[in-house]
Design brief:
- Keywords: ATP-binding, Kinase, Nucleotide-binding, Repeat, Serine/threonine-protein kinase, Transferase.
- It catalyses: L-threonyl-[protein] + ATP = O-phospho-L-threonyl-[protein] + ADP + H(+).
- Residues 467-549, 565-651 form the POLO box domain.
- It is an enzyme of class 2 (transferase).
- By secondary structure, this protein is an alpha+beta fold.
- Among the domains are: 155-364, Transferase(Phosphotransferase), domain 1, CATH 1.10.510; 423-652, Arylsulfatase, C-terminal domain (2-Layer Sandwich), CATH 3.30.1120.30.
- Helix content is 30%, strand content 19%.
- The protein contains 17 helices and 24 strands.
- A seven-stranded mixed β-sheet has the order 1-2-3-4-5-7-6, covered by helices on one side. Strands 12-18-17-16-15-14-13 form a seven-stranded antiparallel β-sheet, covered by helices on one side. It has a six-stranded antiparallel β-sheet with strand order 19-20-21-22-23-24.
- Strand 16 (498-501) and strand 17 (507-514) form a beta hairpin.
- Helix 5 runs parallel beside helix 10 and helix 14 packs antiparallel against helix 17.
- The radius of gyration is 27 Å and the shape is globular.
- The chain starts with a strand and ends in a 5-residue tail after the last helix.
- The structure holds adenosine-5'-triphosphate.
- Adenosine-5'-triphosphate is lined by residues 31-32, 53, 77-83, 85, 97, 99, 131, 147-150, 197-198, 200, 210-211, 213.
Length: 655
């Protein structure tokens, strides 16, 4: 069979992402009907002809992408209301799941917008408990979303096979689910279709949340959505209020409550044959705990709170794991036997062991627990065990650096009020590259001028720039933290946002990236931080404590002359390069000498290993071949390395 030529999808424009907000889409009574257990209830909605996935034909045996990559189609994996999923193997033998959507099923604008939104949101996510998005392409008949393969099916199949699941197992599941949802909410993403059938097992039996077909990014934490959507058994009461009430992150908390109940009791709490009856029960939170399926009182308490009618009475995602129920027996992992039967002796796991397992599971799910342990201890042991400085890749891939990128307008940064920037991501990258270009051009000009003039000129000292005096690369977990020589402390978080805590002030600045609005800088007080920022502030304090007690400064303190953020960093085997929002470039070399290029390439600063700092016109240093008095080893070579590194950034593609 001839291979189809697949092409990359058209890029989304930002307006498409939230367009669903004003449309009322019908409640999805046909999605994964088996979620509405038991079977009689499901049959009512099982109208085969309505399933768009039925339009999806088996893909060709070889799918070839435009950039010449071949994927060999393998077995059929499963089917939802919208897509069919097949195994795909690449040339190296790596197997993926290809969620395949027939183009015939995306004829109308709404379906197209939904698919593009799913792709855009899913692509932006990276978390150990979220199905990894690998690639996306299309051929004449299908759109393929290439995903990490989850060969052990979903929680729905597990429940079907097991009928009920034990409390220790559900505790473990809950932590992984909470980790994934916490990550989504921190990025202002609401999943809106959390259900057992959308939570898969990877080869190691870790849970992976998938299907972002109904996910939505909220423009701000206090905005609301009005589209009625979801899967009947999991819909929160405020969603049924539709246009009038609106809904937000709490719908996911509700769905977590439904899943917890379903796993422990064996069926969802509002289960009925008729969907209308389900909705009536949901609106009145009419459910009960069957006596013949006993569950612990602390489990009931958590379920009751999660299923609070008033969304504001539900625990936040950060509060769920503080419930008493999580103090019960906690396994070290999910074992494969769980797919078919209850593992023995889970109830016998000791308190001490359970506590260790709970903490480890939280850590693996990206959940930071400062109250459980001294943060400095956690960080120290993590850094020691992972040896990140030695073990991190010698250079960051373009993607890595791109993700670390932040863009602001430096002239606006000092204003003590909310400022919005309207730059999209690629414009922002271009702007950053423009700064590199100007600096590179000036350095090159000075270099030529220096070669032509033989006499030496007097070196006049200039003002020292703002420098990074300490840093911790913890981007494998939280982000990159740094302390400036004005004592401000910042963290460039892995979710692309930055928080800068100003020293000798109770103010802090958040640099947030938003899909539609571009970059925004928000100033707040540490005494009344917005809820979303609380956690990040804790992490900044966590780093601050670590850096203060473990790292020595590379330069002496300076008063704050301006507000400066780190906007991008690059690590190689020879140096780490910092690009700051004021256009400065700092290079920390392996031999502990640091050089900063500022004023668009006109000024150079040397910080010696013993912290003595000198700032001179670059022209003077180039003409003399080095700094006077305190000589920099291989000074001109270092300047060339810097110039070349800045040049590479200047000519880098914006996307
Ligand atoms: N990463 C994966 N690994 C293995 N199988 C998968 C994966 N993702 C999806 N599947 C299989 O494909 C089926 C359909 O996927 P998915 O639920 O994402 O599609 P959908 O049509 O959007 O579903 P829904 O009807 O819930 O909207 C799943 O039920 C599952 O059997």
């Amino acid at each position: 069979m001839s291979a189809f030529r697949a092409q990359p999808l058209q890029p989304l424009n930002s307006g498409q992402l939230n367009s669903r907000g004003t449309n009322i889409t019908p409640i999805k009574t046909v999605r994964r009907p088996t979620e509405n257990l038991p079977a009689e209830g499901a049959k009512q909605h099982k109208k085969k002809k309505e399933k768009l996935s039925a339009l999806c034909k088996t893909p060709p045996s070889i799918v070839r992408t435009r950039n010449g990559r071949d994927y060999r189609r393998g077995n059929f994996l499963g089917e939802g209301g919208f897509a069919r999923c097949f195994q795909m193997k690449d040339a190296s033998g790596q197997i993926y799941a290809a969620k395949t959507v027939a183009k015939a099923s995306i004829k109308n604008e709404k379906t197209k917008t939904k698919l593009l939104s799913e792709i855009k949101i899913h692509k932006s996510l990276k978390h150990p408990n979220i199905v990894n998005f690998v690639d996306c392409f299309e051929d004449d008949v299908n759109v393929y979303i290439l995903l990490e393969i989850c060969p052990n099916q979903s929680l729905m199949e597990l429940l079907k096979a097991r009928k009920r699941v034990s409390e220790p197992e559900v505790r473990f599941f809950m932590v992984q689910i909470v980790g994934a949802v916490k990550y989504l909410h921190s990025r202002r993403v609401i999943h809106r279709d959390l259900k057992l059938g959308n939570i898969f097992f990877d080869p190691d039996m870790n849970l992976k949340l998938g299907d972002f077909g109904l996910a939505s990014v909220l423009p701000s934490t206090d905005s609301r959505k009005y589209t009625i959507c979801g899967t009947p058994n999991y819909i929160a009461p405020e969603v049924l209020g539709g246009k009038h009430t609106g809904h937000s992150f709490e719908v996911d908390i509700w769905a977590i409550g439904i899943m917890m109940y379903a796993l422990l009791v064996g069926k969802p709490p509002f289960q009925a044959k008729d969907v209308e009856v389900i909705y009536e029960r949901i609106k009145k939170t009419e459910y009960y705990f069957p006596e013949d399926k006993p569950i612990s009182p602390s489990a009931k308490t958590l379920i009751q709170d999660l299923l609070s009618l008033n969304p504001l009475n539900r625990p936040t995602i950060d509060e769920i794991l503080n419930y008493e129920w999580f103090k019960g027996p906690f396994p070290d992992k999910t074992h494969e036997i769980s797919l078919s039967e209850t593992p023995v002796s889970l109830e016998q796991i000791s308190r001490a062991q359970s506590s260790i397992n709970f903490t480890n599971t939280k850590t693996n799910a990206g959940i930071y627990t400062p109250r459980n342990k001294d943060p400095v201890e956690i960080l120290r042991s993590d850094l020691q065990s992972e040896q990140p400085r030695a073990m991190l890749p010698t250079s960051l891939s373009p993607n890595d650096t791109r993700n670390k990128y932040q863009e602001v307008d430096p002239s606006q940064m000092g204003r003590p009020r909310r400022v919005n920037f309207s730059a999209n991501f690629s414009t922002a990258i271009k702007r950053l590259n423009q700064v590199c270009f100007e600096t590179y051009q000036n350095m090159r000009r000075l270099e030529y001028a220096g070669k032509e003039q033989s006499q030496t000129q007097e070196a006049v000292d200039c003002e020292n720039p703002t420098l990074i005096s300490k840093w911790v690369d913890y981007s494998n977990k939280y982000g990159f933290s740094y302390q400036l020589n004005n004592d401000d402390i910042g963290v460039l978080f892995n979710d692309d946002n930055t928080l800068l805590k100003l020293h000798n002030s109770d103010r802090f600045l958040e640099l947030l990236y938003h899909e539609n609005e571009g970059w925004a800088c928000v100033e707040n007080s540490t005494s009344h931080p917005p809820t979303q920022a609380k956690r990040q502030l804790e992490i900044v304090d966590f780093f601050a404590k670590y850096m203060n007690s473990n790292l020595s400064k590379v330069s002496e303190n300076e008063d704050r002359k301006e507000i400066v953020f780190l906007r991008r960093y690059t690590r190689t085997s020879d140096y780490i390069m910092f690009e700051m929002t004021n256009g400065n470039f700092q290079f920390n070399f392996k031999d502990h000498h640091k050089i900063c290029i500022s004023k668009s390439g006109m000024v150079i600063t040397h910080i010696s290993p013993n912290r003595s700092t000198r700032t001179l016109p670059l022209a003077a240093v180039l003409r003399q071949g080095n700094f006077p008095q305190e000589q920099v080893p291989s000074c001109l070579e270092k300047i060339t390395v810097i110039k070349e590194a800045i040049k590479r950034k200047a000519f880098k593609e914006a996307n």
